[in-house]
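Help wanted!
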Amino acid sequence: MRDQTAAAAAPTPPVDMSFWGDSYAARFEPDPSGERMIVNMGPQHPSTHGVLRVLLELDGEYIVRAEPVLGYIHRMHEWMAENRTYAQFIPNMGRVDYLHALAWNWAYVGAVERLTGMEVPERAEYIRVITCELNRISSHLLWWGAYLLDLGAFTPIMYAFDDRERILDILQMVTGSRLTYSSFTFGGVSMDLPPQFIPKTREFIATLRSRLPMYKDLVTDNGILRGRCEGIGILDLDTARRYGATGPCLRGSGQAYDVRRAEPYSIYDRFEYRIPTESACDAMARYYVRLSEIDESLSIVEQAMDSIPEGPIQGKGPRKIRPPKGEACFAVEGARGKIMVMVQSDGGPMPYRVKLRAPGFSNLSLFAELAQGTLVSDAVSILGSLDLVIPEIDR
Amino acid sequence: MSMTISLADPLVRLVLALVGIFAFVALNGLVLVYVERKVAGFCQRRPGPLHVGPQGLLQPLVDALKLVGKQLLTPAKGDRILFWAAPLLAFLPVALCFLPLPFDASLKAIEINLGLVLILAFSGVNVIALCLAGWGSGNKWGILGAARAVAQSVAYEVPLLLSVLAVAFMSGSLDLFVITESQGAWPWQWYAMKNPLAFLIFIICAVAETNRAPFDLPEAESELTAGFHTEYSGMGFGLFFLAEYANMIVVSGVAAALFLGGYQGPVASGIWWFLAKLYAVLLLIIWLRWTYPRVRFDQLLNLSWKRLTPVALLVLAGTAVAVRLGG
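Answered by r_m:
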């Protein structure tokens, strides 16, 4: 062990800011005893799902410090918004969070509609709700599979993809694409529901409802899974609030906050649905919340299909949008939490500023605190339970 | 002076047996790769390998060819000698473990009345290879994997040994042929039926010893990228892979001989019975892998030290009393 006072007195090494230098690692100082190990988890790591990098200081396998490093998939979406017309920016939204693309699509379109005072016809609102909820289910299913993959179970993701594939087929009928949907337009949606849509969706809902109990028996009730999730990553409500956590992460800590209920938008006040919460605050609680949300979303889709009216799908409005000077915000509930888009206009054909509020960013900030003192395996479990989509965090 | 080469010469027999064993391991390795991928496909509602050869049968050959064709890289921070010694050390001891396996009543590589001890001794060498691989790579994930491998191996060899000892008590021998012969041809005469707890402990420890999911912590893909073999490319990785499969075959063979009556069957006793039982155990291990999530490291050690070891001790004591009273 080195002399503590000598280590404290030694000048800090200069931070290498050159192109090849790793300024993050240089600032992440190891402890003076020299007995701990600094490890890069990511940007190439199987369970950081894409390009998240976490600097870990390890004492054996225990994590002393964790620091997420961002920016590996930054694509300047907000800057792009300032350089194209309002309509041209719509496809970007599907690339922000590719798993719940329609929620982002909706948040942006909603903000512009609020800014220009556009009305959305009834039928379009129903189509938006149906497709957005189906998209939420597909996102939760993918999370479920990927989370179990993180925990070392290879098979569930194949079942999840099997179900998800059916949703993609259905959404393809309405939106024309399978992943990065951008079918919501200002004042409505771009395509009406095809005639086979409703029967196909009902068939899918019946299939998924019959498979969910199997998932519970095979996966949720598995002892090994419970050992890996219960009591792991305890997130108390106070911490969750301080970090601005939303979505299933917050609801897993017992707070029934859901944008669809708290700041009602569109026609969500017409449907009956529960906001699932759990009081255990651990990874298992977040797991339960997401699985219950699949049930609730299925029920919303059913109710919406029962009461969908006939009518136009596109409201009246100019083809080229030039909103008046001012700004507007629109928040929607995404699969990962509160998505908010702020659009500021200077009266021109292009937005003056677009700010995207990504729920994943706040949820990721929790990780440093939750991971402290846990094992590497637990950190993987915690990271998975936060349901992060890195492109959304980096934007 | 003329040298006669006869089958009676033990050296000739040993050389022939080693050649036979390498052929057996390589062939079974290829078959197992195919079986594993097909079973995985079956578990996951997909067809598995399908396009290379009829029903994808040539897939393992092509996989092996690909591995052979890859460049071998040594990490700059690694220890060159240890790094390349490790895959060889992983594979060679496993081959020796095949020597005392009772494939058939007359099919044996060497005459040895301590066959069980030989297998236990050489299967313990495997962990040194994993340790060297992790250390020689000069990779932090590799070292974590190696540390896990050592702790896991130490923890699971104890209950494994105890459960095997229970069988040795019952048969009164360490010779795998004698142990096999002391069981009958029918399932209720097997030690798996007579001593089910020992069999259960043996299977759990066998999965842990071969580092297979749900106990695949040394390589734990989603945690340690690939653990001890993170830095290996081409056949360096290939040898570890082959060693893992050879290890699986050995433990399944031991399970078949110790607990399932070996080569004896109700009709037409012979090597096919041994292979059928061996593959039944292998399929069980593969099935487990594609069903369960991975346990955490401390849970793994707790399972061994707090549950399996005490239970195995009790089983051993119970068996000893039963053997004394019964015999």
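OP: Thanks! One thing I noticed: The mean pLDDT of chain B is 84.
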